[in-house]
Design brief:
GO cellular component, one term: cytoplasm
Protein name: RING-type domain-containing protein
Number of strands: 13
Pfam family, one: zf-C3HC4
Structural class: alpha+beta
GO molecular function: ubiquitin protein ligase activity; zinc ion binding
Radius of gyration: 21 Å
Distance between the termini: 44 Å
Strand content: 25-35%
CATH superfamily of one domain: RRM (RNA recognition motif) domain
InterPro entries: BRAP2/ETP1_RRM, RING-H2_BRAP2, Znf_C3HC4_RING-type, Znf_RING, Znf_RING/FYVE/PHD, Znf_UBP
Oligomer: single chain
């Protein structure tokens, strides 16, 4: 089971969406959008506060859709979920300004039966047949919003936060990946960061250049190179000339 804490100074903004049974879009308080930074926590094994006496998993009416690709709009989501939207009491899209290529969604259903049906219907399903992104859904026990970053990043008792790959930002947990295949296997390779279409990172900009091979800015050697993620300086490591900033 998972728990979520969101660092957010924003408020819920109602979305102009229409259910399949409605003809005209109108603001609906149960469909909302807000910005925040999500911290995802997973229960620790054999912890007294989160373990259960039976093998039956804990059920919840709260579901979390991990990573929806940004090309998939809110209207696309409604069409994707179809008639199951009728069983949803809350639908909150959470966007992170630092991760502009995808967003997450919190869904609360009317009851546990509806949550189970929603989960088994859409978990693992492709958002779009030609693409690799999957709809990955987690059962969530609780969600808390706070204006304080320190509180949001503090795990609840019996939970541990899931780390992310520093390169492709995928969760380092086999149960929470939003894509079918991780190209980089979470190692520093250009095939991974080439998926990042934004050039604000100096490392990404260097690795995606199509000109000559990079060289040390001091001695010109082309092996054992390091690049500063702040200024973009390229220098050789300690086993060469050690021209690091």
């Amino acid at each position: 089971m998972f728990a979520i804490r969101v660092h957010s100074v924003d408020v819920d903004h109602p979305l102009f969406l229409s259910l399949p049974s409605q003809s005209n879009p109108k603001p609906n308080p149960k469909f909302a959008d807000r910005r925040g930074i999500i911290h995802l926590f997973r229960t620790l094994a054999h912890h007294p506060s989160t373990s259960h006496p039976t093998n039956r998993p804990t059920r919840s009416t709260l579901l979390f859709i991990v990573a929806v690709p940004n090309y998939f709009s809110s209207d696309d989501l409604l069409r994707f979920f179809g008639s199951h939207m009728e069983d949803i009491s809350e639908f909150l899209i959470i966007r992170n300004d630092a991760v502009e290529d995808r967003y997450s969604v919190l869904v609360r259903t009317e009851n546990e039966v509806a949550a189970d049906g929603f989960y088994f219907k859409f978990n693992g399903k492709r958002f779009s047949p030609p693409e690799v992104e999957l709809c990955h859904i987690l059962h969530v026990l609780s969600v808390d919003f706070t204006e304080f970053a320190e509180i949001a990043s503090t795990p609840p008792p019996g939970y541990a936060e899931l780390p992310t790959c520093p390169i492709c930002l995928e969760r380092l947990d086999q149960d929470t990946s939003g894509i079918q295949i991780t190209l980089c296997d979470h190692s520093f390779q250009c095939s991974c960061i080439s998926k990042w279409t934004y050039s604000s990172c100096q490392v990404c900009r260097l690795c995606q250049q199509e000109d000559d091979r990079p060289n040390c800015s001091v001695c010109g050697i082309s092996k054992n190179l390091w690049v500063c993620i702040v200024c973009g300086f390229v220098g050789c490591g300690r086993y060469s000339g050690c021209h690091l900033p």
